[in-house]
Amino acid sequence: xxxxxxxxxxxxxxxxxxxxxxxxxxxxxxxxxxxxxxxxxxxxxxxxxxxxxxxxxxxxxxxxxxxxxxxxxxxxxxxxxxxxxxxxxxxxxxxxxxxxxxxxxxxxxxxxxxxxxxxxxxxxxxxxxxxxxxxxxxxxxxxxxxxxxxxxxxxxxxxxxxxxxxxxxxxxxxxxxxxxxxxxxxxxxxxxxxxxxxxxxxxxx
Amino acid sequence: xxxxxxxxxxxxxxxxxxxxxxxxxxxxxxxxxxxxxxxxxxxxxxxxxxxxxxxxxxxxxxxxxxxxxxxxxxxxxxxxxxxxxxxxxxxxxxxxxxxxxxxxxxxxxxxxxxxxxxxxxxxxxxxxxxxxxxxxxxxxxxxxxxxxxxxxxxxxxxxxxxxxxxxxxxxxxxxxxxxxxxxxxxxxxxxxxxxxxxxxx
Lengths: 205, 201
What we know:
The structure holds two protein chains of two kinds. By secondary structure, chain A is of the alpha+beta class.
């Protein structure tokens, strides 16, 4: 009987671990994240990406490094289990696929332009645009979790929501992109360093 | 007259059947075909893919899972995880669960459907058998197309051909524990090449 009470207690506790923020708390988080994002000149971080497909036994795990330099240089580099990098630079997307290099002119491609903007805002966490997203704020155990659901129907067909987890400093530690099918891509950052001078060589393909 | 004879000869050679043209030697009936490469329901099959189509090349992750007795799910995503297409094969039924608008072309879907069905079909009847050097070749039909399976003894190659000419070639290499670590699908009538490298754990 005791055990049952404990189990019930923990179940209730677990489901309550994620609670919605008050308006004031949400505003405070938003201010904190925006302040940090506005002073962020560079980011370098390791990441692990988990691709979850409901029908698979295990998530597909890939990992690598991310580098960002204000205002709009971004490099995603996968190192395992294959080498693949994308670099957003001068309105161009440079791809290096295990040594095979190619590029896409983003200037002429609205989708890539939007994607680049979105990647930058999601790694900084600054997606608080009420015109573009319906936004809901939660507390988790030690962090904050914000759901950004795109209002644009065409966009929502690709991504139903971004779930971004912020640490106490207002820095992004996890980005989850949910598809309408409920499959998702989750990116967990580690060894994140802000505002350290980055070698220009990082931003060459 | 001599030219005519030579021409006729060429016409005959040109019209020779696919097995004859390739010097396949007919042999007595053999066992049927058993393709093990996507047959384990407890295995997630994950490949890094490179696709060359006309003058474009792009990559992604190619995912196959056997989800039922004769049922497979095939999903292709970008390296960054965005789904490009998601198909279900269930015996003879085929469902497009999702496809990116830009790729939603009937002709493309049909080509992919035909190619992927070859990858996942496990059991086929050997209608005729041949031999060439160390390989046994089994002729079979799938959805009214003719295929030649090359076994040595594992399946190392599959060729789709009409009566005279090769149309598509499937190559399986680095075979390890019923997983083909490397698969190539090469079309000869359209400029399409799919290269798959296993990243299965």
